[in-house]
Amino acid sequence: MATISIERTAKQLVLTIQDYSLFAWRAFMNLYTEPRYWSEFLIQSDIIGVGSTAIVLLAGFFTGGVLALQSAATLAQFGATAVTGQFVGITMIRELGPVLSGIMVAGRNASSMASELGSMVVTEQIDAMRALGVDPMRKLVTPRIFACISMLFFLTIVADAFGIIGGGAVTVFLNHQDGTQYFSKAWESLRYPDIIQGLVKPLFSGYIIASVGCFYGLRTTGGTQGVGRSTIQAVVNSSVLIILVDFLLTRVLLAFFPPL
Amino acid sequence: MTAFPASGQPQPTPTDAVQSGSDSTADRDSVVAFRNVSIAFDGPPVLEDITFTVAPGETRILLGPAGVGKSVLLKLCNGLLRPDKGSIRLFGEEIATMPEEKLFPLRKHIGMVFQEGALFDSLTVRDNVAYQLIQELVPDDEIDVRVLEALTFVGLEQTFSLYPSSLSGGMRRRVAIARALINHPDLLLYDSPTGGLDPVTSTTIIELTMKERDVHQTPSILVTHRLQDAFTLCSHRFDSAIGSMVPLPQGQTDLNTTFLMLNEGRLIFDGSLHDLVHSENPSVREFLE
Questions:
Q1: Is B118's Cβ below 8 Å from some Cβ in A?
Q2: pLDDT at B89
Q3: Mean pLDDT of B43-65
Q4: What domain range is B69 assigned to?
Q5: Minimal Cβ distance to B118: which of A127, A133, A135
Q6: Which residues contact A230 (CB under 8 A, 6 or more apart)?
Q7: Which residues pair with B247 in a beta bridge?
Q8: How far apart are CA A72 and CA A168, in angstroms?
Q9: Domains of chain A: which residue ranges?
């Protein structure tokens, strides 16, 4: 009995991965052929980009602050509190900025995409769209994917910047250290490979968030309960995928840009 | 039994046993032609060996108890679902194996009214009705004129700027009919347009489908499990002069309006109203009684 269950689960997993791969490939390739829905792209950019700015900004700010708080005590043991800026800056830009913004945006937007498209499926709006001669992949999925990729790129920059500012605020107001030293260290220690590493990751995360959100939304079955299930799957799977891909990308990027 | 309106189209052969055979010229001349179509979803077949045609100008009323596969059959007609077996010809083209991207242009010639209307929540009535025209980049002025024309046809011109959430169930169905009609389709598919509605609103919807049938002679398939609606469509005609439906003279029925009945995934009846009410098939009799 257990063997049959494992076999069924494994088959289902392989089938889901296959479906997702085909779905994601088709959504990506749609950009190269007509029709393209630029107005949808702009609407989604506004929803994803402008709508997520506040949470990304706050998450970045407080993460930077926590980093400064936690590191100050440890660095003080080695008499190295002067490098707090370098520590916070590099950690935010290379790792925490991209990952945190990805997870925050996944929580907000993968869920909203899955629930919105899922509701459209259960109320037959997707079928109605197809019946009216419009391809839902082109109209709904492709614009969301490219809006998410482009907006997450900028949101990551916002998270990085506010993370460094948050770290600076803690350094000056709570740790009572020199702010100029903090910011100059953060600036001086930055290298182009750090920035490239930090800005390549959101391109992948954006793709994951929107494609996973839309994939589970369009696969919704089972009425309103199914919409809830799709939303959970979208958030959980996109968050896990973001961290997994972040690990793989870090491994690859470190091979290209080895640390000094 | 006489026909109204007299269309001159060849009438379908009434039969309780649905015939099957090879592809024919008749299939290619039909608006829709199903031949030995079967479909299943992770279990026993939902539809099995379905064969029927819809001729130009013909209205086919698809009857059957709930959950028998009527909506599935309708979705097969415009390629929203793919059959596991069999052939489906739409306007003479085989669509059973046609790629989705080739189906989109074909679907623009079909109007479909979904069970609950399936209006887009985030769009106004104007944008819902004009959905297809907006995608085709028709100028706004022309869209407004055509939307008003379609909304006037269904008697809802006052809802132009409203959102679907502020409409009643019956009004939503009528807006869905306006959306289906705006591009003057060559085929109409109605999925239980009166399901869950009160008798007065149901009659309004049936009158609209009759108006489209008699004014534009658009071929259609209408799914329903309400016999009353089906019989009204057969025994009345739309009088354009007075703007409402009137009963046909005693004993007359619309010969271009014929019946299909599904039971347990199989087509158990294909014929006229007269043949339907005189059918000896026990499942048909049970449904009628």
A1: yes
A2: 94
A3: 92
A4: 52-80+99-288
A5: A127
A6: A114, A115, A118, A216, A217, A219, A220
A7: B236
A8: 12
A9: 37-256
DSSP chain A: -HHHHHHHHHHHHHHHHHHHHHHHHHHHHGGGSS---HHHHHHHHIIIIIHHHHHHHHHHHHHHHHHHHHHHHHHHHTT-GGGHHHHHHHHIIIIIHHHHHHHHHIIIIIHHHHHHHHHHHHTTHHHHHHHTT--HIIIIIHHHHHHHHHHHHHHHHHHHHHHHHHHHHHHHHTS---HHHHHHHHHHT--HHHHHHHHHHHHHHHHHHHHHHHHHHHT--SHHHHHHHHHHHHHHHHHHHHHHHHHHHHHHHHHHS---
Domain count within chain B: 1
What's the predicted TM-score (pTM) here?
0.86
CA distance B266 to B47: 6
Name the residue of chain B whose CA is nearest to A33's CA. Answer: B101
Facing residue for A135 by CB, picked from B80, B104, B115: B104
Q: Cβ contacts (< 8 Å) between A128 and chain B: which residues?
A: 112, 114, 118-120
Shortest CA distance to B246 belongs to which of B236, B232, B256?
B236
Stretch (H or E) spanning B274: helix B273-277
Is B52 in a helix, a strand, or coil? strand
The answer to the question of residue B172 being in a domain is: yes
Q: B14 in a domain, yes or no?
A: no
Q: What is the CATH number of the domain that holds B242?
A: 3.40.50.300
ipTM of the complex: 0.85
pLDDT tens track for B218-249: 999 999 888 889 999 999 999 988 888 999 99
In a domain, B3, yes or no: no
